[in-house]
Amino acid sequence: MKYGNSFLLGWACLLPFFLLLACAPKEAREKRKVYFGDLTDFIQDTVYLEKDAETAQLPAKFHYVPEAAALFALENGKLLQVPYPAFGSIRKTVLEKEGPDGIGPFSYGALFTPDFFFVLNSPKELIQLNYSGKVLKRIPFPAESNLPHSLFNTLKGQNMYFDSAKQSVVLPRVPFILKEESLRPQPWIWEADMLRDSLRPLETFTFPTVYEDFTDDVELGTFFNLYQETTGKHVISFPASDSLLRIGKEGKEWVFAASAAKLKFLRGKAVEQGDMMYFINDPESSRYGALQEDRYRSLVLRHVLVSEERQENLVRRDSRLLVFDPQLTLLAELKFDGARLSSQAFFTPTGMYVKMLQNESDDFVGYVRVNLIDLMH
Description:
Helices cover 6% and strands 46% of the residues. By secondary structure, the chain is mainly beta. The model is unreliable at 1-22 and 24-29 (pLDDT under 50). It comes from Nitritalea halalkaliphila LW7.
């Protein structure tokens, strides 16, 4: 059989393409499928912590410290310690509010390490304490700042991190109300140097231009932060943005990380009550929430509130948990009712624990153990 020159020339041009395709890794040739399902399908079991008069409200997030074989949390001025993996009785240490070891009346945002922990006494200072409640160091926050209407805080699920090599704390300065002047490039991520007793800006970024429409909105005019120790990069999530902002030594990049659900971002409104004006968020608005990292399973999690429905005394929050690998490739989107399960979790070697928001007992608080290990394969 004879072939024309044009036919042979065509095959010669296509040959490098087929060779390249054959040599490419299988992962590059087969796009990974995203798993869609229910978060409750991954529940393994439930543990219960006993409450008492001093622990009427238990937090959604604890922090596992392997060296102490315990979970720790700060709640209403008390240091809570729970043995792990036994989940036994809660040990409580009441921290001083005033005096040399005082942490102030409005302290929150604890960060735990094997030897000490940190507390935000915002807007005043960052406090370092030992586990007996003795103050070791105080790093004052600037009295004046070019960041208006903002505080060092983690109230909505923002994160602090301790760099043991540098002996420094990475912490966010978050707008409690977004104003027009906040839309310019600002240093939103800071670093507290515990060796030099100093505080300095660490990372600067700009809110996307769409947030000009969300000034004064306390739910949509904020951000959430995550630091990936394995990659050395900061990841920023904005409530009304599908993409995540990733910041590293190479610069800044946007990574598409959207929910498949139909989202609508609606600005709230100001209402007058007596002599005061209050800004009320739109209950029908969607929003992206906090970022968390499960370092035991190398997963990044992003919470999404799709919608909220209220019927008489019943509330249903159509929520999603977006699950990513460390490169922010979407692995799964898991739906759940945010009125029944918390949007925040804590992580241990045996799984992720999520607080149950509707408990059948007044004496115990339940935490379901979720195992997402199968999503990694």
